[in-house]
Amino acid sequence: MSLPTSRRGSDRRSSGNASRRPSIDPSRLLPMDKTTHVRGTDDFNVVFIGAGNIMFGSDEGPWNHSFRLEHKLGPRLKVVALVDPNVERAKSVLEKKCDSFVVSAYQNTRVFKTFEEFVRGMSRKERPHAVIIGSPPMFRGSTKPGRDIELQILEHLPGVAIFVEKPIATGPEDEIVDGLQIAKRIEDAKTICSVGYMLRYLKAVQMMKQIINENQLTVMCTIARYACAYESIAKPEWWDKAKSYGPIIEQGTHFCDLSRYFGGDVDILSVQAHSLEWDENAGRLSKMRIDESQIPPERRIPRVTAATWKYDSGAVGSFTHLVALQGHDYSCEFEVYADGYSLKLVNPYVQPVLYIRQPGDDNETTVRFGDDDPFFSEISNFIDIIEDIEEDPEAAQILSSYEDAVRTYEFTWAIRKATEKSRVDKLKASVVA
Ligand SMILES: NC(=O)c1ccc[n+]([C@@H]2O[C@H](COP(=O)([O-])OP(=O)(O)OC[C@H]3O[C@@H](n4cnc5c(N)ncnc54)[C@H](O)[C@@H]3O)[C@@H](O)[C@H]2O)c1
User: Fold this and answer.
1) Ligand 1 contact via 136 beta carbon (within 6 Å)
2) pLDDT tens string for the chain (433 positions)?
3) How far is the CA of 61 from the centre of ligand 1 (A)?
4) Which residues span the membrane (predicted)?
5) Model's pTM, two decimal places?
6) Most buried one in 96, 363, 420, 429, CB count within 10 A?
């Protein structure tokens, strides 16, 4: 069994220069049914942290890391441990797996309430190649005991690769520095680490990158809009700023990250934002599935957040997040402008379509991406980097490093703070008037 130490993933960190951010040839991003599992016969041990929706799927969306790992690793996959304080939930998902054709990956999986318990009882044979973290973000991304799973992994399982879900944390703003410390520890240890900003792995997104790179374009502007279908969001924590930290930090983070992926680092001091709040007339919603009166007023989330900022490059970005639509499907669009070009990504979650306008033609070319699976691509690239199987340096890439994801987290916090400042300023002005 080969244990990874220093590998390519951590060496290919993204830099502050947007054009040098890592990218993948879109023709290499293949859906599961067009690939075979990785070669080899030795076991590939994995530990799952969290037995929830991201790890085992739900009807809320296409995410399901266990399913993608099963396809990527085939019979080599051995889930040695599932860590979740909700032991019943963990046992129940394992029962279903053991009752299916992937039983060989789960028949010896042990359930633990905490990571410490697993480490204490871990045999040599059970040492993992990778740990997949899908616990809620308030339990990670910090240096504080109980919320420091990344540091625990670095200490007890040095050299073991880490995949961690977005956002890197949800916690007080003054803990963003904890994230930077964790990033440094990961970097110093040369640990392979990938963060689950899966939109970066969309074929459409990589085609946008390819057009920018091949034509040596400089991004002038990014425009992002994310309208969620609030009727389908039934988790009370999501509506409570004290728990999820608001819709930008928890959800809009995907588009804030995509903005940074194309625009580069954000001048944090330039961030300005306004919000439509729950207690303003236009902010009344008629189809919420939770009882908002149970959430203290100061913790209720904004219905609209509109932000603008400058990138360090000089380019300008904007983002509007809306808690406005009903039904199930979200409505999301992301545009990038450069001299002569507009690249518009529509519906990235459901059925991605890319509209390309380029010099010489005022009409847009439409490219549809019917069978894309960014969740598989991010897992597939992560495993390929661990296995170090490709000689070709362009082959596999981790597109979201921990440090880069901390910057996205910092950016989302800056937007939240800017809306709160704008609201306070407005209230002050109305008192004076
Ligand atoms: N990339 C995406 O599109 C996407 C989609 C869904 C979820 N996510 C992310 O995945 C993460 C988990 O979300 P989810 O929907 O699976 O949540 P969930 O509530 O369905 O599951 C979380 C699980 O973690 C367990 N848990 C709580 N504390 C824990 C701890 N300290 N250690 C281990 N397990 C713990 C809970 O008991 C629960 O079973 C979040 O960060 C979320 O943002 C990302």
Assistant:
1) yes
2) 333 333 333 333 333 455 557 899 998 898 888 888 887 889 999 999 999 999 999 877 889 999 999 999 999 999 999 999 999 999 999 999 999 999 999 999 999 999 999 999 999 999 999 999 999 999 999 999 999 999 999 999 999 999 999 999 999 999 999 999 999 999 999 999 999 999 999 999 999 999 999 999 999 999 999 999 999 999 899 999 999 999 999 999 999 999 999 999 999 999 999 999 999 999 999 999 999 999 999 999 999 999 999 999 999 999 999 999 999 999 999 999 999 999 999 999 989 999 999 999 999 999 999 889 999 999 999 999 999 865 566 678 999 999 999 999 999 999 999 999 998 888 888 887 7
3) 13
4) none
5) 0.93
6) 420
d(CA 115, CA 153): 9
Task: Report the Cα 245 to chain-centroid distance in Å.
Answer: 16
The CA distances from residue 17 to 22, 30, 311, 318, in Å, are 10, 28, 10, 19
Residue 71, token pair as written in the block? 């396809």
H-run or E-run covering 429: helix 402-432
317: three-class secondary structure by DSSP: strand
Distance from the alpha carbon of residue 55 to the mean position of ligand 1, in angstroms: 8
Closest CA to 405 of 166, 136, 150, 137: 166
Read off the tokens for 81: 């441990």
Spatial contact of 66 and 79, defined as CB atoms under 8 Å apart: yes
For residue 374, give both structure tokens: 């960014």
The encoded tokens of residue 127 equal 């040492």
The 8-class DSSP code of residue 299 comes to G
